[in-house]
Amino acid sequence: MPNHVLARKWRPQSFTEVIGQAAIVQALTHALESGRLHHAYLFSGTRGIGKTSLARLLAKCLSCEKGPTATPCGQCHPCLTIAQGNYLDLLEIDAASRTKVEDTRELLESVQYPPIMGRYKIILIDEVHMLSGHSFNALLKTLEEPPKHVIFLLATTEPEKLPNTVLSRCLHFTLKPLTNDVLSEHFNHILQREHIRFDPNALTLIAKAACGSVRDGLSLLERCIAFCGSDITVAKISELLGLADSHTVQQLLDTLIKNDAVSGLTLIRALAEKGADFSGVLEAFIELLHQLALQQVLQKDNPTLLSAERIQLYYQIALIGRRDLPLAPDPQMGFEMLYIRLLSFQPWHEENEVLPVVKKKLSIPAMNPI
Ligand SMILES: [Zn+2]
Q1: CA distance 162 to 357
Q2: pTM as predicted
């Protein structure tokens, strides 16, 4: 399957298909239904969460022959051509690639002319914070006295970089990052319609790896379909994402309990050879500790072997390890050091543990002068 097919195919074509942004959809629906339209909208939020998709959808609502409406028909010329990306009265600019003053000026000059066929001339500027200072001034001039037929739709990942003069003239919507549940549900919906079998737990793994971005999630889902064929399983997704399976993480914890460094380090080396993503392994380890702690307080009749203090200590060390892992020269080295730290920091002693006796005080050998 070619790249980005899913993202294009499942781009929302109506407000009911927009995921995870209920408050914004409600506000836009209300504005469209009551006819209280603004001449400039700004959509901000992290990458890949649907800012330009939402802007294009709004363009469709504004341009539909049956509109302006919150429920565009999807059949008329503007609806169809906006979906295909070639509607003449919707001008899309990617400011990340067009920052020259002349380009913006050329665009703003064309704004003075009425729309070619539609109700409004709609200017969509993506990554608007990338416009140069001169371009901002040109934009601001138009925003100050916008012709009646012009509507600006601006999108940015960094709204704080926009001048206040521009911000204050826009109706600003901040899109929320998508939760793992929302993403999993979305993937579930898509796979059912694509007739692909899946384990819901595998979708949770994909959702987590997408870090709140629907675009990244869909491109990952596409890789997963290519890798797994028509049956998406946890084992295959773990392999694709370089995740350790829960059995390996449990084994790693066992070696810590048994103070068996050789087995633990051998396991870590085997993970590295399989191309494991150590930050994912660490995350799975932290989740296991969380589960054990929950089990301890919620199911007192099902005691775990580990003391509550040891779970807390491991959890704390693992959390700090997660922060430090990217600083290590390579992830395997960082993870090995974390493992050794977990082995070393055991400030209490079990009943059957014996304190090692220091027979001779060791000192650092003196270095020979160079
Ligand atoms: Zn229409």
Answers
A1: 65
A2: 0.72
